[in-house]
Every structure is written in structure tokens, then in C-alpha cells.
Design a protein that fits this description.
It is a single chain. By secondary structure, this protein is an all-alpha fold. It has one domain: Rhomboid-like (Rhomboid-like fold, Up-down Bundle), CATH 1.20.1540. It has eight helices and two strands, in the order H-H-H-H-H-H-E-E-H-H. Strands 1-2 form a two-stranded antiparallel sheet. The longest helix has 26 residues. The two termini are 26 Å apart.
């Protein structure tokens, strides 16, 4: 199956950036990861910069982190891009990335704690996951652990509920749960915008 252009480009860029991380050392993390506002990294890194709202999404903490994010993008991105069109999908993905970053920064500012960088495409991926559940609600999705099939709308609802639970309770610490929810929030806003249910509505339709 030939992947549509934006999904294909995102997969390639993320893999290339991960390889560059290994070659460049900590420099990429210090400059392009998402740092909390008014903090600096461990080696005199700059504080939060606007470009980090996007750049963090192209970095990953481990090969496992990269693998599961890219697997989800491969599984769901092609269908969503085919439905929305490549240009709108590109906007949709990066709005999800930015809202994920903003939600995470707000949560970190409220919760406090040491300045830890955030990396990963998960905010965009969770936005894509929401769109898949909305536009293809009855398609069967298989959980990996355990391997249980379920409709996409149930799958998405389950993931959103788990992220909210983990975020509120502090379970599974070290994961930016509110960034994941922020990605879904951004995706939801774009879906409503596309449907013409916003004050700045784009057009009517689904």
C-alpha cells in the first residue's frame, strides 16, 4: 500500500531525526525539545522557545518510543489523510502537536517540578487517533496488549479515558498524559471547525 504524501513524509522525517539525535548528542534535545517556560536545560540550554511547540514532535526518547508512535501513524494516518486531504491533514496534525504542547506546558506550570524536556510525536498521533475514531467509528481496531478487537470509537474513548485517569492520578509517571489529551483537544477543535461548528467556521460538511 502506497502511503499518502504527508503521512509518508512524517514517518521519514521522524526516523531521520531519531538517527540525527544519535549522531548529534544532547544538542538537539537542548534546543529542540519542549522545555518548560522560564527554565533551561542541564547544559546551559535555552529556555522555552516558540519553535519548540513544533520541533519537539520530531524527537523521541528511545527506539521503542519512536516505533510505537510511527506504528500508530502508519496504521491510522493514511486513512485520515485520505479522508481529509493532504493539506488539511497537515494542518490538522500540527494543530494537534501545538495544542498538545500548550496543554503540557500549562500542566507543568501548575504542577511544578524539575525542568524536564518533552519529546515525541504522541500529541499529533493522539489527534490522528481521534479523527480515526470520529470518521471511521465502526472499523475494527485491535489492541496490542491484550489483543482484543473493538470498534474504533470504543478504542479512542478507552484511550482518552485512560490518559485522563493516568494524568489525574499520577499513574504511569514520566509520560506526558496531558499532552496526549491536548493533542485530542486540538484534533477535536479542527474537526468542529471543518464541520462548521465554530464562530470561525470553514464550511459545512463532515
Amino acid at each position: 500500500m502506497r502511503l499518502p504524501p504527508v503521512t509518508q513524509a512524517l514517518l521519514i522525517i521522524n526516523v531521520v531525526m531519531f538517527l540525527l539525535q544519535g549522531a548529534a548528542g544532547p544538542g538537539l534535545i537542548e534546543w529542540f525539545a519542549l522545555w518548560p517556560v522560564a527554565t533551561s536545560g542541564p547544559i546551559a540550554a535555552p529556555s522555552f522557545q516558540l519553535w519548540q511547540l513544533l520541533s519537539y514532535s520530531f524527537l523521541h526518547g528511545s527506539i521503542t518510543h519512536l516505533f510505537f508512535n510511527m506504528l500508530a501513524l502508519y496504521m491510522f494516518g493514511a486513512a485520515v489523510e485520505g479522508f481529509l486531504g493532504s493539506r488539511y491533514f497537515l494542518y490538522y496534525y500540527f494543530v494537534s502537536v501545538v495544542t498538545a504542547a500548550l496543554c503540557h506546558l500549562v500542566f507543568v506550570a501548575w504542577a511544578g517540578g524539575p525542568p524536564v524536556p518533552t519529546v515525541g510525536a504522541s500529541g499529533g498521533i493522539y489527534g490522528v487517533l481521534l479523527a480515526y475514531g470520529v470518521y471511521f467509528p465502526n472499523r475494527t481496531v485491535m489492541l496490542l496488549f491484550p489483543p482484543i478487537p473493538m470498534p474504533a470509537r470504543v478504542f479512542v474513548t478507552l484511550f482518552a479515558a485512560l490518559e485522563l485517569w493516568f494524568g489525574v492520578t499520577g499513574t504511569a509517571s514520566g509520560i506526558a498524559h496531558f499532552a496526549h489529551l491536548g493533542g485530542m483537544l486540538g484534533g477535536g477543535l479542527m474537526i468542529q471547525y471543518r464541520r462548521g461548528r465554530f464562530p470561525f467556521a470553514r464550511r459545512r460538511g463532515s
